[in-house]
Amino acid sequence: LQFEDCGPEQRHAPLFLGGDSAGGGTALSVVLTLKQKLDLLPAGITIAGVVLFSPWTNLNCNTPSYYSNAFSEPSKDVFAGDVVFHGPPGSNMIRYKRNALDYVGGNTSLLTDPIASPMHAGAK
């Protein structure tokens, strides 16, 4: 992480982070990293808030919701489920996991790393 000096009036401004989907998971990873390594934040800067929209927090893609929310067709006029992966739930989970492996550069240990995959960080 690198912070640019924006002038004296901005040196103590609160830091807000946000993201959607994988960006939400990345924003949460930044928060977890900054909690562990306080020296990365410039003096006087604090994390004031985080806004996450459907963050990708489980890169292992193995929670029940990956199956139950993957696809449903309540009627012919309405679609509910994943907007990108329209296959059967088992196939979708394989595709999600493949994307996750691409996201972490093929390093399978990062699928359960608490920083890369924040669901594994626990409550602390």
What does this structure look like?
- By secondary structure, this protein is of the alpha+beta class.
- It is built from three helices and four strands, in the order βαβαββα.
- Helices cover 28% and strands 14% of the residues.
- β1 (15-20), α1 and β2 form a beta-alpha-beta unit.
Structural class: alpha+beta
The best one-word shape is elongated
The proportion of strand residues reads: 5-15%
Major sheet description: 2 strands, parallel
Average of pLDDT: 80
Give the number of DSSP strands: 4
Report how far the terminal alpha carbons are from each other: 22 Å
The percent of residues in helical segments reads 25-40%
Question: What descriptive keywords fit this protein?
Answer:
124 residues; alpha+beta; two-stranded antiparallel sheet; 14% strand; elongated; 28% helix
Can you give me a brief rundown of this structure?
The chain is an alpha+beta fold and 124 residues long.
SSE inventory with pairings:
Blueprint: E1 15-20, H1 22-36, E2 47-53, H2 64-68, E3 71-72, E4 80-81, H3 89-103
Parallel strand pairs: 1-2
Antiparallel strand pairs: 3-4
